[in-house]
Amino acid sequence: MKIILTHEVSGLGAAGDVVDVKDGYARNYLVPRGFAIRWTKGGEKDVAQIRRARKIHEIATIEQANEIKAQLEGTKVRLAVRSGDAGRLFGSVTPADIASAIKTAGGPDVDKRRVELGSPIKTLGSHQVSVRLHPEVAAKLGIEVVAA
């Protein structure tokens, strides 16, 4: 099935790309979550609009991505969350929580879709997350999760 991506999807493409994927993947995952729309001849106008919006929000050069990477890796991020007695969290830390904690700590504004968690963060302590700034540049960031 041919689809137009509306958001960046790891391993598939960036917003505005027209890709061919298996029917079930598009029908059950990409389209319902708003990551893609079905391709039509009239949808070609949407592609140009999506690409224009992408150019506004994307990090244009590798040098710019490396500057932001240096800022991120120099930022100490503490995230206060509710937890139980044994240090287990009530729920888990989401990429949106991390993005807002980076902003609060004085770091650069990061889109929550660029934050990649290896596994869900469900305990107190230090954790490593990756922030994908550019297809070739990713920043490793240490997060300190503390009890609120």
**What gross morphology would you assign?**
globular
Q: What's the number of extended β-strand segments?
A: 9
Q: Report, as a whole number of angstroms, the end-to-end distance.
A: 47 Å
> What percent strand?
25-35%
What Rg do the Cα atoms give? Answer: 18 Å
Care to describe what's here?
With 148 residues, the chain is of the alpha+beta class. It is built from four helices and nine strands, in the order ββαβααββαββββ. It has helices spanning 23-30, 44-57, 62-73, 95-104; strands at residues 2-5, 18-20, 36-38, 77-81, 88-93, 115-116, 121-123, 125-134, 137-147. A hairpin with a 2-residue loop joins β8 (125-134) and β9. The chain is globular. It starts with a strand and ends with a strand. The model has no long low-confidence stretch (mean pLDDT 86).
Secondary structure elements and pairings:
Blueprint: E1 2-5, E2 18-20, H1 23-30, E3 36-38, H2 44-57, H3 62-73, E4 77-81, E5 88-93, H4 95-104, E6 115-116, E7 121-123, E8 125-134, E9 137-147
Parallel strand pairs: 4-9
Antiparallel strand pairs: 1-2, 1-3, 5-7, 6-8, 8-9
